[in-house]
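From: lab user (bench 3)
To: helpdesk
Subject: output format question, protein + thiamine diphosphate

Hello, I'm new to running complex predictions and I'm not sure whether the block I got back is the full result or only part of it. Here's what I submitted:
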Amino acid sequence: MTVLDTPAWRPRTDAAPLLPDPEPYRLLGTPAAAELDPALLRTLYGHLVRGRRYNQQATALTKQGRLAVYPASTGQEACEIAAALALRPRDWLFPSYRDTLAVVARGVDPVEALTLLRGDWHTGYDPHEHRVAPLSTPLATQLPHAVGLARAARLTGDDVVALAMVGDGGTSEGDFHEALNFAAVWQVPVVFLVQNNGFAISVPLDKQTAAPTFAHKAVGYGMPGRLVDGNDVAAVHQVLAEAVGRARDGGGPTLVEAVTYRMDAHTNADDATRYREDSEVAAWRAHDPIALLERELTGRGLLDDEVRDSVADDAETMASALRERMHTDATLDPMDLFAHVYAEPTQQLRQQEAQLRAELEAERQS
Amino acid sequence: MTTATPAAGRTAAPARKPATMAQALNRALHDALAADDSVHVLGEDIGTLGGVFRITDGLAAEFGDSRCTDTPLAEAGILGTAVGMAMYGLRPVVEMQFDAFAYPSFEQLVSHVAKMRNRTRGAMPLPITIRIPYGGGIGGVEHHSDSSEAYYAHTPGLHVVTPATVEDAYGLLRAAIASDDPVVFLEPKRLYWSKSDWSPETPAKVEPIGRAVVRRTGRSATLITYGPSLPVCLEAAEAAKEEGWDLGVVDLRSLVPFDEETVAAAVRGTGRAVVVHESSGFGGMGAEIAARITERCFHHLEAPVLRVAGFDIPYPPPMLERHHLPGVDRILDAVGRLQWEEG
Ligand SMILES: Cc1ncc(C[n+]2csc(CCOP(=O)(O)OP(=O)(O)O)c2C)c(N)n1
Ligand SMILES: [Mg+2]
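Helpdesk reply: Thanks, we reran it on our side. This is the complete output you should expect:
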């Protein structure tokens, strides 16, 4: 045996097949789009329009003081919707704090999905019900969870895929890199979706990464990287569905970078004019995910006024129901503060609970 | 500790009155950058944006991107590279965007920042300032309202400083940056917009680190507090007059080093003490302070030292936080339990 025969000497995998396409993959407006199932396109369209309306309504609710904060995904609806729709009911979604839309598209009640941002509790839904992890605010920390869950499912013999979402900024955190490495070493059924929306609050891409693309980061960990136009809902859906399918079939993890743009400020509390040009925003407005799909649908004779109106009506119904429900004050019980800290409250917590109860009683009587 | 007195800033300050704590912190960073070329500010969104709380507003424009740098989004990386910069002789000031987002940097802090002087027998001190907006009361969603001072204070090798007034925000931050030891500088975010007549161009006073200050003298009992809870304690002391109590208030300003003399002297004068902070009580700063008061002042005490702290729960969502934060009533209630003689 020489060093040439030892495992350390030779590359363990061929890097070339893992590399992403040189340009973001697109479907809408290309000849390949002709193959797309009209029913799928119509479904995606309905979700996109509803999603946009949801973003608008939640933003309005924030202005009215009904939400503490809302990180809108306006302009990113194609990624949000495609992520939810690429999964089967038994799969799991791991959203970041910007991904309320994906959570709702997966079936979580639209008001329960907003609990965190309304401020009446931290997570408003039972994660098991729709297999959606809590919205994660500490960036990238949800990614190792997705890997662990996917591994557990595999070890249990269950056919489950986990899809985890993260932003361009989040890819700089250590947890992102650790999650990718574990996923590739263990070959677990997980898909990482990086929504590259151009900014981490105010920080632009050139201060965040020197990699050719975020998708290239996959190669260093030994998994394929895919680069896709994040505003082309058909393309994102196809790429994610393929990655999910590959994961399900034992092919291991994939990293998907969807190139998109955050049309609104970081949140309602942010002033984006401090750090970006209107011309850039305008360029992306001309590449709007809904308009791209409408063009395709119209070109194929799949979108007439009737379809358009009924989709718009449906979105309006959703928005007015949301508005109405959010204008009802949340039911709050201060004693909930002590309810779920431990399975059994400690002696000290019981004392503190009694203290608060007495204070509230005194408040009521005065 | 070594606390060099920084020279006055090069640029004339705008005559703005009254100033907020945020402006005083901004001015302190400005003056530190102007006074010492080895000072470098690092963090997320601190350049063009000027920080999410605008504490670094205008610094990148004036001193350039290399002195006030937008880093990649990674707290362990921010603090880890600050360690390397300090090893080479620079004086980094890092900003963590929010309390709970400092946690990825905990290993760098505990394993390296806190220990380097000791590991190298003094050959390699690390003059790093770690600024962390902390605490609640601003209606933030989860992970935006933590009070993590006990973790830091429990780590030998770190100074832990927290201003409660506009003046101290300036003076203590200048001292922290000038310190040759690492300082965790906790900024009470709900006081960022508090105002005072302090003006940036009046002789910039650098406050030595490690000295508590008596904010109010009193004869009945002493409230001991720091950071975000100071205004609440002062309000409680005012309200206590109605009950016939004359309360003193001590502002610690520095948790490490802890100024036992000032605290002990104040408590000896009243014989009764309540420690107030908004972080959880169990295993918190109040326990340490109460123990020290008992050790130092036992024969002067008329009652056990009491604590008023946040509950031992994860920080509540915005709509419930008012039930968690110690308020005037909870403080007065504790004062009432200090075993006063009948009549
Ligand atoms: C560990 C951690 N550090 C800092 C923050 C504060 N923060 C919240 S969002 C954000 C920017 C995130 O950018 P990106 O990952 O690109 O997601 P986007 O907001 O664009 O969806 C920052 C710095 C955080 N939530 N978590
Ligand atoms: Mg982003």
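A quick orientation on your result: Residues 16-332 of chain A form a domain with the Rossmann fold fold (CATH 3.40.50.970). Let us know if anything else is unclear.
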